[in-house]
Hints:
The protein has helices spanning 2-34, 48-52, 60-69, 84-89, 110-123, 143-163, 178-198, 215-225, 254-261, 286-295, 313-330, and strands at residues 38-43, 95-99, 126-131, 167-170, 202-206, 230-233, 240-244, 247-251, 268-272, 300-306. With 331 residues, the protein is an alpha/beta fold. The protein has two domains: 1-35; 38-330, Alpha-Beta Barrel (TIM Barrel). It has an eight-stranded parallel β-sheet with strand order 6-5-4-3-2-1-10-9. It has a two-stranded antiparallel ribbon with strand order 7-8. The radius of gyration is 23 Å and the shape is globular.
Amino acid sequence: MKKQTLLFLALFMSFGLFLSSCNSASEEETSTEQTPELNISLAQWSLHKSFFGDALNGNWQEFGRLLLENPDSLLQGSLNPVDFPAIAASYGVNTIELVNTFYFSKANDMEFWADFKKRCDDAGVSVGLIMCDALGNLGDADSVARQKAVENHHAWVDIAKFLGAETIRVNAAGEGTAEEVAANAVQGLKTLGQYAASKGINVVVENHGGYSSDGSWLAGVMAAVDMENVGTLPDFGNFCMERTANGCAKEYDRYKGITELMPYAKGVSAKTHVFDENGNEAEMDYARIMKIVKDAGFKGNVGIEYEGTELSEDEGIKATKALLDKVIAEL
Length: 331
């Protein structure tokens, strides 16, 4: 009788553990369904023509001068960057990626950012990251200039924190050989990464021309930095390492590059230029790319970044979102 009782208890406990396991699996499946692993966001650069208008006349030297001296004068487009939260919501996205050059005069204007945060709340969107440009080279060979570049990013780290964003995107640029720029970029990123970590913010580097568009080079920089809050923002289209007046003279293999950068990714930038008659990106295999993203175990924001000329910015954003919706559903 005693043995029978013990056997019964053992079976009862095993059955209970089985039920618990089933319930846990059910809860996990429900949680996964409620929180998609890949969230489509909208990068503000997709509307850069609509914000800058005629200020983008091809004279980048003059554009750069005005950006530093009178940045608001560059906002000559039909849309106002302050309205971006509501504009993004109209495309059915819930996360936005800001570009600091649209708000260059607002780096220390917290009243502006308080109003902007309210606009985000009203539109039902959140800020995922802020893309930072024109703040100096984090891979500068001059240690003083490099430190100044680091400090120039502090305000945007603070803004990201205030807005509830997780990340700022920076550039790992500099002058010198690949090895020299890499060594200097590691120092700049480590220093900025420490400040960002104190605020709970990630720092990510995009493949954005020059050495950074070499996937193995940027992956090597990440390995050397070796910080939890410093990573990459793989851009599906930015693998041109050398550009001339006739176009790209030297391009890194995009699929190899994305594969190399994904282990460090804290976001991805879904660049598009041209679409075929079936709605696929004509210059790259999106199904192949998104499989690389998924196989890397990535979970997070996939940012729409349309840069084409055949479609309007509005049409390009919609086409990119439709493509991502289709490809993600097929993964």
